[in-house]
Write a structure and sequence with these properties.
Shape: globular
Largest sheet: 7 strands, mixed
Number of strands: 17
Order of helices and strands: EEEHEEEHEEEHHEHEHEHEHEHEHEHE
Structural class: alpha/beta
Number of helices: 11
Distance between the termini: 18 Å
Bound molecules: NADP nicotinamide-adenine-dinucleotide phosphate, zinc ion
């Protein structure tokens, strides 16, 4: 079946309308009519070939929400009409130890929602900047938010789980002082989630105009990280830092803010490396530097349910598909509060 999409034919070309093929649903497949798709900074990194190995045509998008429009004969968990989501994962081996623990995100055979090999034409996966997608039921998430919030739920499928998973893994909760670095799509979700988990949240931004806005997201304190005095006021006081910044920057300035035994986890994935950390900043206080990638399917469902229960959604700006190139330029300038979401109905126009 042919479906309308938006994608790029090369890394140095803008995104443009294109027709793509979707497979007919197999016995375990769920076909979804996509209502909205969030715009992640990873979409920019990949469509522009900033990370190695982009396959073209590239149709990005892994923050997908919509309604089930058909199910395969053996699908038990979903019915036509259900509100569902698809995040960054559409397949994995389902046999290895990681899959067995529900950590499909760390499976060596994980298939991402776009830019990963598949038997379907054109030989690699195509993402959510499209009208429709067909996904094995194992990777389909249930949405329990009210339908009126659907567009603002979309970013939970990547920005939500990518921040929720490390906050849970490092057991963030009451009594912890937690830093969130970078107030973009991921960072603004990190602030909301850490706040809902009961932590004292300090937001770090390079953008003075975000200072007040960050408080309304749930930050107890906001630091403009270019200001050395403001940074110094938090020296050796943070239990955990979640660093979401999409560009290389000085990590040492943030290590200095961790307590003894504190951890900074990187989720931002810049195209070029950070300057290497100063080792004494780590060894003198037994500090750790860590990384984390999205989250597994069970934890993504847990995160969606947690957000539904706590009334958490993303702060979004809804756009038409033909505004995507302009949206990318604005994201690179940090000019979005805090996530663009495509209204996929605009693809029909
Ligand atoms: P985003 O909305 O563009 O936000 C990134 C934020 O980083 C910006 O809002 C800005 O915050 C800060 N920033 C950007 N450039 C900076 C610079 N040169 N110096 C200092 N701060 C800078 O991006 P996103 O969608 O949240 O994604 C963030 C990163 O996470 C991307 O690299 C993306 O690929 C990656 N990612 C990783 C995973 C994973 O599984 N680990 C999943 C999704 C995304 P302020 O204005 O507040 O300073
Ligand atoms: Zn993403
Ligand atoms: Zn596996």
């Amino acid at each position: 079946m042919t479906t309308k999409a938006y994608g790029a034919h090369a890394g140095n070309q803008p995104l443009e309308p294109m027709d793509i093929a979707r497979r007919a649903p197999g016995p375990h497949d769920v076909q979804i009519d996509i209502a909205y798709c969030g715009v992640c900074h990873s979409d920019i990194h990949q469509v522009r070939s900033e990370w190695a190995g982009t396959r073209y045509p590239c149709v990005p998008g892994h923050e997908i929400v919509g309604r089930v429009s058909a199910v395969g004969a053996h699908v038990a968990g979903f019915r036509t009409g259900d509100l569902v989501g698809v995040g960054c994962i559409v397949d994995s081996c389902r046999h290895c130890a990681d899959c067995g623990e529900g950590l499909e995100n760390y499976c060596d055979h994980m298939i991402g929602t776009y830019n990963f090999p598949t038997d379907d034409a054109p030989g690699h996966t195509l993402g959510g900047y499209s009208q429709r997608i067909v996904v094995h039921e194992h990777y389909v998430l249930r949405i329990r938010h009210p339908e009126a919030q659907l567009a603002a739920v979309a970013p939970l499928l990547c920005a939500g789980i990518t921040t929720y998973s490390p906050l849970r893994h490092w057991k963030v909760g009451p009594g912890h002082k937690v830093g969130v670095v970078g107030i973009g799509g991921l960072g603004h979700m990190g602030i909301k989630l850490a706040h809902a988990m009961g932590a004292h949240v300090v937001a770090f931004t390079t953008s003075e105009p975000k200072r007040e806005a960050a408080r309304t997201l749930g930050a107890d304190e906001v630091v403009v990280s270019r200001d050395a005095d403001e940074m110094a006021a938090h020296a050796r006081s943070l239990d955990f830092i979640l660093n979401t910044v999409a560009a290389p920057h000085d990590l040492d300035a943030f290590f200095a803010l961790l307590k003894r035994d504190g951890t900074m986890t990187l989720v931002g994935a810049p195209a070029t490396p950070h300057p290497s950390p100063e080792v004494f900043n780590l060894i003198m206080k037994r500090r750790s530097l860590a990384g984390s990638m999205i989250g597994g399917i069970p934890e993504t469902q847990e995160m969606l349910d947690f957000c539904a229960e706590h009334g958490i959604v993303a702060d979004i700006e809804l756009i038409r598909a033909d505004q995507i190139n302009e949206a990318y330029e604005r994201m690179i300038k940090g000019d979005v509060k805090y996530r663009f979401v495509i209204d996929n109905a605009s693809l029909a126009a």
